[in-house]
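As a next step, the fold was encoded as tokens, giving this record:
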Amino acid sequence: MKLRLPGRRDSTPTTDAASDATSGDGDELTAQLLKAGGKGRPTPKRAEAQGRRQGPPPPPPTTRKEAYKRMREQQAARRAETRQGAARGDDAYLPARDRGPVRKLVRDVVDSRRNVGSLFLAVAAVALIGTFAPSLAVKTYSSFVLFGFFLVLIVDSVVLGRKIKSSVAARFPDSDHKMKGLVWYGISRSTMIRRWRFPKPEVPLGAQV
């Protein structure tokens, strides 16, 4: 029989206390291992991840010709990236006149309808050729066709302008916009052939915008 002196504590830890300490140490060790393995830190950005995958940077150029060649390659790559970003409508690559959700809405309104203005180049080319014809009748008909086309273009532009105003007012009612500038922006885009528009159309013909 073991006697315990009064006022003296047993220095030997109990089984439960030892188990708790072991469990706490194990949790701490697990957290440290997870952190060392890459968990518990923010996900790296895409550019940083691509940079790590590409490996170490290339050695510096040794000649002026090599440096100039490398500079031209980098400039060409940046221009290609800018063109691709602008073509898909990325605001980071677009000029100031094409940026913003309002301009994006105007482009969608124009691209969702068949515009008379998209025939402008074809009609103008035919009328121009007709003016050089030796026949007076052909010249007269060409002038009438061009004049009639301009009348139809004006009517279609008025309809397009009203649709742009109503769409912008419905989508962005609390914003103050210069409607004249937006309407002119849409009309100027409508006079281009659809496949030549830039940024490229993102909505099909007949889509509800």
Q: What stands out?
A: Residues 96-196 form one domain. Confidence is low (pLDDT under 50) at residues 1-26, 29-41, 44-53. The longest helix spans residues 136-171.
